[in-house]
Amino acid sequence: MSKLIECIKNENLKIYSRLGTKIMVGTLILAVFVAGLIHNYLPESPASMWEFLYVNLEIYVSIIVLYAVIIAAGNIPMEFSKGTIKLLLIRPISRSKVLLSKYIATVSFSLGMLVTTFALSLLVGGIFFGFDPPSQANLITMSGSPVENVIPHLITVTAFIFIDMLMMVTIAFMISTIFHNSAMAIGLVVLLRFAGPNIVIVLHQYDWAKYILFANLNLRQHIDGTSITEGLTLSFSVITLAIYFLIFVILTWWIFNKRDIIA
Amino acid sequence: MDNKPILQLKNVSKTLGNKVVVNDISLDIYAGEIFGLLGPNGAGKTTTIRMLVGLLSITEGKILLNGVNIKKEFEQAISQVGAIVENPELYDYLTGYQNLIHFSRMSGNVSKERINDIIQIIGLENAIQAKVKTYSLGMRQRLGLGQALMHSPSILILDEPTNGLDPSGIREFRQLLIKLAKKEKMAVLVSSHLLAEMEMMCDRIGIIQHGKLIDVQSVHNFVESEKKLTVTFTVDRVDLAEQTIQQDFDNKPFNVSDKTFEVHLEYNQVPYVTNSLVGKGIKIYGITSTQKTLEDKFIEITGGQPIV
């Protein structure tokens, strides 16, 4: 257990030391400030810091998920292309634990980006549009119903976004572990992400459409009631995602453990 | 040398696809011994080393490190090993120190003092806080050695270790390895294509060709077993000397030039030949003997095909 923690420290060290990571964090912070400036000069500026966060939510999520996927997809291929995997896997620690430490570090970094961006957005929103108590948020969801209680709603939304991101990171991890190619993993995940919703729209008339990963990925559709697929409920989506998750994880670990290291 | 084998390969084979890359290799390496693995590219040296450290699965046979099976108890077996596999590839965006910390965390039992000692041993005190991407190949090699030695392993496995070191670096490195093997009773396995290097450093040398271990010899025996010396004489009267040797020793000099000639002699014949030349009033300006080099011997063993 303590070895696992040491390994997670190592993976964090490597993630934070890379230039790419610093650029990602910098652009995220910049994006929030730019959003604040733009909204400040728009004729209809957000009524509150809460609204400022909600109107920009999708943009933040797109960027963060992309960054999370890039970090996840690059982690293992980079060890292979630099040859460091050979020194990494000749330590008294199992391959499963090495992979787990990489996964935990990537996921926690992604979650950190998500939470920090939201918190920063609230702060920037507060500076530009005033710090209002949550009771005066006056938010309306995509389906038109008002948001009663903004804090629990925000927490639920964040949790659902996290699950979405977790699935993306897991897929990127799986593809990059199988093919040792980060560009391919990033490309495939981004492609699936853009094409996924369209595939669901095309196929939503069929009974089995609800089993498609992408029909279930956006759990937020259940809070806002915007789901277009028949028979989808929150618990159905959660169970489906859990099954997909298990398959991805088992496949990734199995392949990483049995593979010959010839890098 | 101890009689206890620390590193054991028992009928180890490796098949990749349907190609047999390593074919039934058995080998024991002992504590306090430096063993050299020699072979042409693609002979199976690196494949063997990768199986030893658990990077490749073993198709057949088994590998024991200090008696522990690498396949069955990987963590316990590998904790005895320090290694550089092929090039010393470290994290170039981290500093040398961060690299050492990184690998020490994975071994578990390395103190800060030990890391500082290692930095002294590998002589990187002045560069340890610089990023590895600024390092020369020689410095990377030293850092690689540092991460391999840090956890005081009983087995040290080094693939092409002198690659990129300058001559004085190689000398230092050789002395360090000999010290580690003799004083700290480590079993050291090196692969190298530098024959002369191997000769100076190793106690025994194994030759791999086409995945098979075709010969293992101790370096000492290697040289001793070749009793015939090639002796070069530099004299004033070559014709008379030639005649004398033919008459007295029934031996024909060759490579005759106006001041020198060569002759095959046994070691204990050399003084008698010299004596009889002096007896004929021939002035001798030089006698040099050359033994058959390791390289000649290897080429002989591998059937005239070059080793590297």
Describe this structure in words.
- The complex is a heterodimer of chains A (263) and B (308).
- Chain A has 263 residues and is an all-alpha fold.
- Chain A has one domain.
- Chain A has ten helices and no strands.
- In chain A, helix 3 crosses helix 7.
- The two termini of chain A are 28 Å apart.
- Chain B is α/β, with parallel strands linked by helices.
- Chain B has two domains: 214 residues, 3-Layer(aba) Sandwich (Rossmann fold), CATH 3.40.50; 64 residues, 2-Layer Sandwich (Alpha-Beta Plaits), CATH 3.30.70.
- Chain B is 35% helix and 28% strand.
- Chain B contains eleven helices and 13 strands.
- In chain B, the strands form three sheets. A six-stranded mixed sheet of chain B has the order 6-7-8-3-9-10, with helices on both faces. A four-stranded antiparallel sheet of chain B has the order 2-1-4-5. Chain B has a three-stranded antiparallel sheet with strand order 12-11-13, with helices on one face.
- In chain B, strand 1 and strand 2 form a beta hairpin.
- Classes of the chains: A mainly alpha (263), B alpha/beta (308).
